[in-house]
Amino acid sequence: MPQTELTPESALPKPSLLGGSLKAFREDPLTFMNELHRQYGDYARFRLGPKSFYAIFHPDMLKEAMVTKSDDFCKAGAFDEIKRLTGEGLVLSDGKHHDRQRRMLQPKFTRGHIQRYAEQMGISTRSLSENWAEGQERDLTHDLFRITFDIMTRTLFSYDSTTRLEQIEQAFDSINRIATDKIRALIRVPLLIPTQQNREYSAALQTLNEIVYGIIQDRRAMKGGERQDLLSVLMEAVDESDQSVMSDKQIRDEVLTMFLAGHETTAYTLAWAFDFIMRRPDVEEKLVEEWSRVLNGALPTAEHYPELVYTQNVVWETLRMRPVGYITGRTAIRDTRLGSLELRRGDSLMISPYPLHMSPRYFADPETFRPERFENDYVRTLPLMAYFPFGAGPRSCIGNHFAMLEMVILLAEIGQHYVLRHAPGHPPVVPEALLTLAPRGGIRVTVKRRSS
Ligand code: HEM
């Protein structure tokens, strides 16, 4: 296995004394990770400010880190800014607490269970897109945010977010922007110090807290048994070891975790999918053929999903080239080893699927958008961690089936009724690595009704 420390001979900018590789990472983490992989092979060590990280690129080492030796790692320390928002929710909690929460929530996210949400996914999409005016220019990313948020709040929490939508959007926008800034900064000003940015962050948190505690209180005021959604699971769950129930704070943490993890990811993936489709008439033609054959104008449902094979492959290919969950972290909680790499307790890993997804070793002609490559269960022929847009192992995405069903339904419903084109003079859309992989500056489109 090649050895690694980022050296001055590297094509990447020479690490600075103070910041290490922070500048290159901050400017373009995808290219940075790709370059590390290209130059150093299986793993590389680099520094961001005072902190060192190992980037891991070999599928077997990744499998150890995320699956077979996942008990040797935790998530603590990686994203403290986000933890202010999500607290001990599923994404950033660790140990027994995480295991218990995951065990409790998992049954509500199985492929079978989430099928019941398909109808609402179709209804939200249709009601929020059916009034798009002919020839109108629209902010597609924003529209997709609204639809995915509506779907998530209605299906998981039976909550109609429309009345508070602008406030919610503003709060998420502030949090996303500021948390990204803080994660990438060399010196982080603690949130308790009242800088303008910190005040904005705290105000955004307060808005979301108020909304979520309101949802919890409204539900407590209802007599039991009226709802069968995720919120009731959280509120009724009893810990068998001590018969305790979740506090409002614990419920709030899980609700905000789902808010954060569950709508921006799908909205951005769909924005990327439309971006690819608009640039590829051959892909669009195949999609339109599939939509008219399978749907013929009907609202897409869970029954249609297995037949929308090409649409699914468009989503898989989008997730290959634009894995919105482009980076995650782990910290070793004991001395351990990945392949021949010895890790000490406290060592940090930086993990990104992007370099593997773009490797010609696993994907021929990786720069070309080609949904057909996913035909015939292609991924099953690859090593386990060559393609992992939803992560892997016990910390893999709990919402993967929800996300796939939602994205296929949304893509098919909008696509069967509208022809989208980049607005005149639109610049090429490039990725911006925020908390998730966003299209920089959003995507503006003109919409036209698709003739039948
Ligand atoms: C395109 C859509 C999505 C992508 C690409 C995605 C990606 C990911 C990835 C890569 C992870 C693992 C992170 C790690 O290993 O550290 C993750 C975790 C998670 N995702 Fe998603 N996600 C998506 C949609 C969703 C949706 C719709 C929900 C909820 C409705 C959701 C909820 C979660 C939660 C709760 C976790 C933490 C699981 C745990 O640690 O036990 N995600 N997601």
TrEMBL record:
GO MF entries: heme binding; iron ion binding; monooxygenase activity; oxidoreductase activity, acting on paired donors, with incorporation or reduction of molecular oxygen
Cofactor(s) for this UniProt protein: heme
Domain of life, per lineage: Bacteria
Residues binding heme, per UniProt: 397
Pfam families tied to this protein: p450
Keywords for this protein: Heme, Iron, Metal-binding, Monooxygenase, Oxidoreductase
The keyword Metal-binding belongs to this UniProt entry's keyword annotation: yes
Family: Belongs to the cytochrome P450 family.
UniProt protein name: Cytochrome P450
Organism: Paenibacillus flagellatus
